[in-house]
Amino acid sequence: MTDPRRLSAVDLLVWSVVLGYREQQKRAGMRALLLPLPPCPACNATVLEGTASWVREAGREEVTISMQPCGHRHWASLRAIEDVQDHVVAMHDILEHRMMTTDEIAREAHARLDQSATIEETGPGECPPGVHSIFDPCPGDCGKPVDDEPDLAQLQRHAQDVSRSTGLAVTVEPFHDQYQIRLEHPGGTASHGGYDSRETHAMLLGIGMAATANTAIVQAAARAEGTDTATWTVVRAIQLMNEAGQQRDEARAAIERVGGLADRLDEFAENALRVDDQKLYAAIASDIRTRINGAAAGPSALSSPDA
Fold first, then answer.
1. In whole angstroms, what is the distance from residue 35 CA to residue 40 CA?
2. Which end of the chain has a smaller Cβ tally under 10 Å, C or N?
3. Helix, strand or coil, per DSSP, at residue 301
């Protein structure tokens, strides 16, 4: 085994984004993780597994990424990770709203680090009036609000992008006051409805990830199922639609139960005899509703454990 090699800033950014986003997907219960992994920086071989581990010794604090099956190891200092962290957060933001392949992540990393000096000198470019869309984020930091509720036209364009990148016939249609996704394939048509705009957007991301996964992995999975890659891809995309629908229903039911608890606490606050009890029940109910309506982003997979 050779000594670990230092990761370049670009490779560190790419691996930080990919591993961090895969961790976020795991925590969210997603089964179709972002693939393929970036190639090994040393030998350019396909990486099937990349594991990050921290080393903490006197005067030495760094992360090492072990890559399999080639066996090469690469390291980066805590300072180097901190230097790219703003880019990691920004790129995770983009991934939450727009499907990107690993190659596109690498191109984005190159563009960000190659242009960072120029951006610092000249500042962000002029932005058009109005708010930014989640599908067209600001390349700088103009401070304008971002519209994270895509409308029907944006969702339909997203479905067209998924269709082009996957070869599947994916469309989005109105469904009462919400949206429906249709997936056409040789065996018929699968459709799921009753999603709001953010859920529809997330569904399209999931379908795209299932269909654009590493070719070798898809071929192996298809052989194991005794079918061809095209059929496996369609079946997998339908399975993801079913799983996402079930997870959505379970999440909504859980939120309703927790919301009911907040309502009960409000009743306790109204009927409590002591002022302190009234304030306590009301504060807990308010905190519950705040947690229901908001979500915090998870840390990067390469963030320091003590950060």
1. 14
2. N
3. coil
Q: Which two tokens stand for residue 163?
A: 């269709």
- Three-point CA angle 292, 133, 155, nearest 5°: 80
pLDDT band for position 117 (cuts 50, 70, 90): very low
Give the residue extent of every domain in the chain.
5-118, 150-293
Is residue 91 within 8 Å of residue 113, measured between CB atoms?
Answer: no
Q: Which amino acid is at 116?
A: S
What is the average pLDDT value for the chain, to the nearest integer?
75
Measured CA to CA, the distance from residue 283 to residue 9 in angstroms comes to 46
**Long-range contact list for 2-7, CB < 8 A, 24+ apart?**
2/72, 2/73, 3/73, 4/64, 4/73, 4/74, 4/75, 5/41, 5/42, 5/72, 5/73, 5/74, 5/75, 6/74, 6/75, 6/76, 7/41, 7/65, 7/74, 7/75, 7/76, 7/80
pLDDT band at 100 (very low <50, low <70, confident <90, very high): confident
Burial class (CB in 10 A: 0-12, 13-18, 19+), 143: exposed
- As beta bridge partners, residue 75 has 6, 64
> pTM of whole model > 0.70?
no
Average pLDDT over residues 123-146: 51
Residue 289: per-residue pLDDT: 81
Burial class of residue 56 in the structure, from the number of CB atoms within 10 Å of its CB (0-12 exposed, 13-18 middle, 19+ buried): exposed
pLDDT tens figures, 62-96? 888 999 998 999 988 888 888 888 888 888 888 87
Looking at the DSSP bridge assignments, the partners of residue 57 are 60
Q: Which two tokens stand for residue 91?
A: 């790129």
CA distance 92 to 2: 32
| Widest Cα–Cα separation across the chain | 72
